[in-house]
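Q: Here's a chain of 105 amino acids. Please give me its 3D structure as tokens.
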Amino acid sequence: MKLSELLGVTVVTTDGEELGRVHDALLVQDGPVGAQGFAGLRLHALAVGTRSFGTKLGYTQGTVKGPWLLRAMFRRPPTLVPWLAIVHRSAERIVVDRGRIDESR
């Protein structure tokens, strides 16, 4: 599976509620750096939301402070959907279990 296969895919809950589209992925290092200088990475969660422009600019991660107007426009962070919450995945949509999503961010 390639990350490009996930980006832009619509995410819905098992109840049919649409959460938005996949805008980014959270990877975690899952092993030491090998002899070739590459670390083993694992897909931990998907960043899902209705807006992606603020995420692409870095506003939702809190790393960009920028002008107050842009901060106000992009203040709603994406929902992080853990990989383990995914029930079904196809090219058109990803179905997730709402009970496994922590929205306390």
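Q: Can you summarize the key feature?
A: Helices lie at 53-57, 68-73.
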